[in-house]
Every structure is written in structure tokens, then in C-alpha cells.
From TrEMBL:
Family the UniProt entry places it in: Belongs to the class-III pyridoxal-phosphate-dependent aminotransferase family. HemL subfamily.
Record flagged with keyword Metal-binding: no
Keyword Cytoplasm: yes
Lineage of producing organism: Bacteria, Bacillati, Actinomycetota, Actinomycetes, Propionibacteriales
Enzyme class (EC, first level): isomerase
Keywords for this protein: Cytoplasm, Isomerase, Porphyrin biosynthesis, Pyridoxal phosphate
InterPro entries: 4pyrrol_synth_GluAld_NH2Trfase, Aminotrans_3, PyrdxlP-dep_Trfase, PyrdxlP-dep_Trfase_major, PyrdxlP-dep_Trfase_small
NCBIfam families xrefs: hemL, PRK00062.1
One Pfam family hit: Aminotran_3
Annotated metabolic or biological route of this protein: Porphyrin-containing compound metabolism; protoporphyrin-IX biosynthesis; 5-aminolevulinate from L-glutamyl-tRNA(Glu): step 2/2
The protein, known as: Glutamate-1-semialdehyde 2,1-aminomutase
Cofactor(s) needed by this chain: pyridoxal 5'-phosphate
Taxonomic source organism: Kribbella sancticallisti
Length: 440
């Protein structure tokens, strides 16, 4: 299965056409393969754990649309539900049944009492910040370096030069005024959090963090970091916002919450809950959510929020995501991690594998001597990136589609079967050799 030729002619042609009309030829930067080089593959179809590009090459998919495709591609029941919904019309700008049921499903699975549906993870975190500021009457936000919360202006901030300084814009187009109320701290660093609260405690509206970061590679919280954040926020009248856009409904029935059980004031969701369509949400304590319009005065809205097709896809996906599915995802992920470790060990390639439930990533560290767990963005950055690029391309050539960056989680689906695992195992033997050939 998945014998891949190196024919990428039609992808290359489409990439040229795309580059003529779209900056960098893509509609989201990581798709462009800049970190690994080469021609991004334009996909034409997906079926179960496989995706097939326009040149007819088929890959075992370990990206899963960056998380959403928990059940695999074109799941028959999701497809049927979506087709039935589409045939009834695609949007009314009125409330519909599916959004009520999706809201109920989210409330049943997570600690949030009330939820508001939006269309992207970016919108969810942006709205959660506005709500936190509106509810507390405070301006400042604490975020952690290496945590990604979508392209929200105030969260595209880098740490300033001092230990505890206000953020500086992380990209042109974000003004200093916009990031002046953002404090960027190293992840897993309790002392930095304590110091920030000592300095700015009564001005901090919220701390936002990925529940278990996956956007710098998988770097889980250590030493009860989330519980510490929740307690520190509570003690200082700030809100704790747990961003589960990546982890929610993927790691467990609820998300990372199902692992550490730390109760946030507000949570954000996306990815899996849209079943491959644009749907996301933020939610939390009923008294906080009551600040939102039309119940309260914090404005938030969306023409396509709770869209009937997106909510049908998400609801059907969540209803199919049973305990058995999560057990299978855990097992598949453990097998994959073992296969990666075996292949890299055999070739003497140094690595660190970290996981958060079934999410995992492989860090191509310079050496394992004295290497400890990767705890933060600086640690994640110390990798031999050309080694990842060689590894990535060897996997691609052998029919396995990995995230095209060394700073991403690998995503499994419940559709991965023994044949696919065999394909991955064969690919890994070649990829480990390719990685070994790259010197530090
Ligand atoms: C993907 C992601 C987002 C942004 O979601 P979009 O739908 O891409 O806007 C926010 N937070 C986390 C943790 C994510 O992984």
C-alpha cells in the first residue's frame, strides 16, 4: 500500500499558479514547506487514514488537517450527515438544532457551563480575551512563549528583553500599543509567573495557556503547572483561560482536562469539534459567560457562527468519538512512538519523544547526553533542523505525510490500521538513515 512515486508535477504546477495569486502560494503559512524545502503537495482526496495528492501519490496521514480528522477522512457517517444537512440548505442566520446539540455535547464533555460557537480557534481565543477583560475590568494578559493561540494581534507578541517585561510585537502589522498589555513568560516557569503577578497582579485580566502545548512540539506542563496557574489567578482576581483548541476532544473525551482535571475559568475549543469544517467555541463559568451579548454587554458575534453544516460535522464526529476510539488512538500513538524510537535508535540518531496523551512529537536534539525533558520554547528550539528536513522528506517519499515542521505535534486518527503502521515502519527505516546522514 501507498507506494509513492516521486512524481510531483501537478502539485508543482498548482503551486506555481497558487503563487501567482496568493502570497507564498498557500492560505496558511506552514503548508508552504518553507521549513523543510520542496514542493508542497496539493491533496485531492482523503479516505480513512490516507490522503492522495493531485499526482496520485497516496500517503498515510499523520497531520489529520492539523488535528480535526480524529476519525480519519471521509468517515461514512460524518459524510452522510453532512450531505443530508447540505441538502436542507447551508445557512439561515437563525438558530438551528445542530448548534444546540453541539453546545450540549461540549457542556457534557467538559467543565464549561455555557459555550458560544464561533468559526475558528483564533476567533475563540480573541473572544475569550475580550470577555476576560470585560468581566474583570483589567487590561493585561499573560501568555507563554511557544504557545500559539491563533493569529490574534495581542497574542502575536514576543518576550521583551527583561525577565518580566511587556510584550513586543511578534510580527509587523501588530502595533506596540496592541502588545503593551501582553506579558510573555517562559512556559513551565512558576517563578516568572509569581514575579509577573507581584509586579502587575491587580492589572492582569487573565493568563492564557495551551492546556498542554503542542505548537512548539509537544511540551506538556510539568510539576502541576496548570494547577499552579489556576491558583495564582484565583488568588489575584485574574481568570485562567485554558486553550484546548488542539487538545480538546482529541486527547480524551474532553481534552487535556481529562488528564489533569484543572478547572479553568474559560476554555477555548476548535479543530476536532468542527469535524473538518470551520467551527470553534469558547466557554466557561455561567456567571462569566453571562457578560456576553445579548445577555451582557461584552459584544461578540458572527454571521456564520454555529453554521448548520459545520455543527453537523462536529456533532457527528463527537458522537462517534467514544471511549473505544480514544483507547484506540492511545494505542496507535504508543505504537508509532515505539516505531520511531526503534528506527532512530538503530541508526544512532539522537532524539527526544514527548507526548501528551495521543499527541506526540519528535525533537531532533543535538545529543542525548545530558539531555533532559524539553520544558519550554528555548528547549524546543535547540534542534538540528536539517536533520528533521531530511527525515521529513524521506518519510514523504516513502508515503507518510508528517507535519512539515520540527515544531509541530504528530496527529493520529482512529482510522490507522496495521497496513498503515507497516507502511510507517518501512518509511521510518529509510528516514532514520536519511536523518543519520545529516551531521550536527
Ligand atoms: C490551531 C490553534 C489555534 C487557532 O485555531 P485556528 O482555527 O487556526 O484559528 C488556537 N490555539 C491553539 C492551541 C491551536 O492549536
Amino acid at each position: 500500500m501507498a507506494a509513492v512515486s516521486d512524481n510531483t508535477e501537478l502539485s508543482a504546477t498548482l503551486f506555481d499558479r497558487a503563487s501567482a495569486v496568493t502570497p507564498g502560494g498557500v492560505n496558511s503559512p506552514v503548508r508552504a514547506f518553507r521549513a523543510v524545502g520542496g514542493v508542497p503537495r496539493f491533496m485531492a482526496s482523503g479516505d480513512g487514514c490516507h490522503i492522495t495528492d493531485v499526482d496520485g501519490n497516496t500517503y498515510v496521514d499523520l497531520v489529520c488537517s492539523w488535528g480535526p480528522m480524529l476519525l480519519g477522512h471521509a468517515h461514512p457517517e460524518v459524510t452522510a450527515a453532512v450531505q443530508a444537512a447540505v441538502s436542507r440548505g447551508t445557512s439561515y442566520g437563525t438558530p438551528t438544532r445542530a448548534e444546540v446539540e453541539l453546545g450540549e455535547e461540549i457542556v457534557a464533555r467538559t467543565p464549561v457551563e455555557k459555550v458560544r460557537l464561533v468559526s475558528s480557534g483564533t476567533e475563540a481565543t480573541m473572544s475569550a480575551l475580550r470577555l476576560a477583560r470585560g468581566a474583570t475590568g483589567r487590561a493585561k494578559i499573560v501568555k507563554f512563549a511557544g504557545c500559539y493561540h491563533g493569529h490574534v494581534d495581542a497574542l502575536l507578541a514576543q518576550a521583551g528583553s527583561g525577565v518580566i517585561t511587556l510584550g513586543i510585537p511578534g510580527t509587523p502589522g501588530v502595533t506596540e500599543a496592541t502588545t503593551a498589555d501582553t506579558i510573555v513568560l517562559p512556559y513551565n516557569d512558576k517563578a516568572a509567573v509569581t514575579e509577573a503577578f507581584a509586579q502587575y497582579g491587580d492589572q492582569i485580566a487573565a493568563v492564557i495557556t495551551e492546556a498542554s502545548p503542542g505548537n512548539m512540539g509537544v511540551v506538556p506542563p510539568v510539576d502541576n503547572f496548570n494547577a499552579f496557574l489556576a491558583r495564582t489567578c484565583k488568588d489575584n482576581g485574574a481568570l485562567f483561560i485554558s486553550d484546548e483548541v488542539m487538545t480538546g476532544f482529541r486527547i480524551t473525551k474532553s481534552g487535556w482536562y481529562g488528564v489533569d482535571g484543572v478547572e479553568p475559568d474559560l476554555m477555548t475549543f476548535g479543530k476536532v469539534m468542527g469535524g473538518g469544517f470551520p467551527a470553534a467555541a469558547f466557554g466557561g463559568r455561567a456567571d462569566l459567560m453571562a457578560h456576553l451579548a445579548p445577555e451582557g454587554s461584552v459584544y461578540q458575534a458572527g454571521t456564520l457562527s454555529g453554521n448548520p453544516i459545520a455543527t453537523t460535522a462536529g456533532l457527528t464526529t463527537l458522537r462517534l468519538a467514544t471511549d473505544e476510539v480514544y483507547a484506540r488512538l492511545d494505542e496507535t500513538s504508543a505504537t508509532l512512538q515505539r516505531l520511531v524510537a526503534t528506527a532512530l535508535d538503530k541508526e544512532g540518531v539522537p532524539y527526544v519523544i514527548q507526548n501528551a496523551g495521543n499527541l506526540f512529537s519528535v525533537f531532533f536534539v543535538e545529543s542525548t547526553e545530558g539531555q533532559q525533558q524539553i520544558r519550554d520554547f528555548a528547549g524546543a528550539g535547540a534542534q538540528v533542523l536539517p536533520r528533521f528536513a531530511a527525515f521529513f522528506h524521506a518519510m514523504l517519499d516513502a508515503g507518510v505525510y508528517l507535519p512539515p515542521s520540527a515544531f509541530e505535534a504528530w496527529f493520529v486518527s482512529a482510522a490507522i490500521d496495521d497496513d498503515a503502521l507497516a507502511t510507517v515502519e518501512t518509511a521510518l527505516a529509510m528516514a532514520a538513515r536519511a536523518a543519520a546522514a545529516v551531521k550536527n
